[in-house]
Amino acid sequence: MRLHGNALRLTVVVGESDTWHHRPLYSEIVHRAHAAGLAGASVFRGIEGFGASSVVHTSRLLSLSEDLPVSVVIVDTEERVRAFVPALDELVDEGLVLLDEVEVVRYTGRGGEPGDAA
Fold first, then answer.
1. Which protein family is it in (predicted)?
2. I need a labelling partner for 7 at 20 to 30 A (CA). Which of 46, 59, 61, 108 fits?
């Protein structure tokens, strides 16, 4: 798959302890993105944050470190990302879903050719 130029970035911010059928929610999102044939997905664990509940979660306090923020970031063409977004309606009860336009400058796998599988 070649990915270059204008694209759409989907960011889903959920809690680390959020689950879908006894599986981490972030993992379910990544596996569904993979099954949908999207260009890629990455998960980033936050060290501190708060959301709509206004409760600050931080890795510095053991009592509050159980539900740190986790972001799943997916980048692909606008058409493919927008087609994937409805799948999140079923998965994300609490969290934040963002879409923003980005420009892909380089998308290269280990094979060295643009779009090669990593």
1. Belongs to the UPF0166 family.
2. 46
- pTM equals 0.83
Residue 66: φ, ψ to 5°: -80, -20
Tracing tokens 């099954």 back to the chain, one arrives at: 35
Residue 109 lies in a domain: no
**DSSP element (H, E) containing 98:** strand 96-104
CATH number reported for the structural domain that contains residue 100 in this entry = 3.30.70.120
Q: Is residue 34 part of a domain?
A: yes
- With respect to residue 12, please indicate whether it lies within any of the assigned structural domains: yes
Q: Which two tokens stand for residue 78?
A: 């606008």
**In total, how many domains does the chain have?**
1
52: containing domain: 5-104
Please choose, from the candidates 79, 5, 93, the residue with its C-alpha nearest in 3D space to the C-alpha of residue 38.
79
Are 76 and 3 in contact, with CB atoms under 8 Å apart? yes
